[in-house]
Design goal:
elongated, about 120 residues, about 0% strand, mainly alpha
């Protein structure tokens, strides 16, 4: 394993991220296990008509998974990804600037033709 990977593995943020993935997975698994018997009995199933169970075992499980994956987002948990953000923004700004300068030089050179334009 590379030294960079070992550094990430021992970072507490990475451990929080892995724990968050585990909690989210268990929450979605609980929801899925609940949904199987709920839907297997059809619309008249008594499990389906029990609203408190539905709220806890369906809605709250989704909310828990969403909360954990939002709070422990990879962009927060992986330090190397945080360092890429300014570089990506800078590269995007440079490519946009190049695109503008290229299109301006094309217009100045007269190489851009417009639909419906007539040359006289």
């Amino acid at each position: 394993m590379s030294p960079g990977a070992q550094e990430i593995m021992h970072n507490p943020r990475f451990k929080f991220f892995v724990s968050a993935i585990g909690v989210a997975t268990v929450a979605i698994l609980i929801r899925s296990i609940y949904r199987i018997p709920e839907l297997s009995g059809g619309w008249a199933n008594p499990i389906m008509r029990n609203e408190p169970d539905f709220i806890v075992l369906d809605g709250v499980m989704c909310a828990i998974a969403t909360l954990f994956l939002t709070v422990f987002h990879p962009g927060y948990c992986f330090k190397p990804m945080q360092n890429l953000r300014p570089t990506m923004r800078r590269n995007k700004a440079l490519s946009e600037k190049q695109a503008r300068s290229t299109s301006e030089s094309d217009v100045e050179a007269g190489s851009v033709s417009y639909i419906g334009a007539h040359k006289s």
